[in-house]
Amino acid sequence: xxxxxMTNDQITELVVDISKRxxxxxxxLAALPxxxxxxxxxxxxxxxxxxxxxxxxxxxxxxxxxxxxxxxxPMTERLTLTPGRIAAMAEGVRQVAALxxxxxxxxxxxxxxxxxxxxxxxxxxxxxxxxxESRPNVTVDCAVLCxxxxxxxxxxxxxxxxxSNMKLAAIVQDALRANGIHPDAVQFIPTTDRAAxxxxxKQDDTIHCIIPRGGESLIRFTVENSRIPVIKHYTGxxxxxxxxxxxxxxxxxxxxxxxxxxxxxxxAAENLIVHQDAAAQLPRLAKALHDRGVELRVDSHAxxxxxxxxxxxxxxLPEDFATEYTDLIIAIAIVPDLKxxxxxxxxxxxxxxxxxxxxxxxxxxxxxxxxxxxxxxxNASTRFSDGFEFGLGAEIGISTDRLHARGPMGLNELCxxxxxxxxxxxxx
Length: 428
Prior knowledge:
The chain is of the alpha/beta class. It has 14 helices and 16 strands.
């Protein structure tokens, strides 16, 4: 049940208990047959549809409370569950059931000097803690991705979605029990107290990995308070670079798609960088952006080039090139050469996704090698940086870290590996 007004000692006891139970469940989960996991998923998808009314009723409590929390319109929109959104959630669960099981796959066969059989085999990480805000569908997404990859999960949603999350977690637990899977395989922390999060982040003996999903402040808080490794991305500052030999029509299509198709997401472009030998394309590109309501923040070179265009221009500050706008705003720079473009990106980007538009394969190769981001594209929109678009099926999020997982994270990235050795009595 929901725990209100608990003492700090009670909160600590609760979270430590949840973590220990998750660890015990994870050892059982690691050995579950694929069929058992998939039957659970298909059952859960069915239950979500059957219980649509009950989920919407729980969600109504959160929407009512959202008024007193003074939630912004976009946040309230993300919090709202409709029959259509619940159906989409169920469809997402079915898609995960259809994905190949990553557990037990042979990654590599080694050739040790002694000659025995040694293989690297994919295995679950163990227990994954997921901390997120607002969108209740994350509860189901993360629970099923962790379970399919053999991991126990501990979910910690935001207070604005508490009733919705508790209801969804209860449905998940019922489906686990119905399929003979340890109910502690997916647990939801039943308190909104911030203290619970601090305790969770200290359970490094039972939890193996933390994935925060939400705004930058939530992620910074997680990293600053965690003893457990965190997989994350702070921001998505992506750039589109138009090289000297870029095809003008292709450049415009890629730029407009990267910036305007969905400006609020982390793989939308925030910077436009143009080689001086392609600068003749800038007025056309700037007009295309302006026609779609994009505010243009220009460096002095771009400003001079666009002075005659009559378009409204804002002077770009140096920090504008390192800002994630998540809005119809773009920073524009003209650079003397490819190296200057690469340097500008490496100095300002968040290491998410950057794209070059060029007909010159040597320039493209140089860009792809030298830009230090999780995903680097040649002649394609930054919007393709996504687990689904990469063919990973569902994704748990995107990492701009360097250890363990980088870029869109699918089921494989929720696993680690172990070395499995078959000998014939060898001793060293």
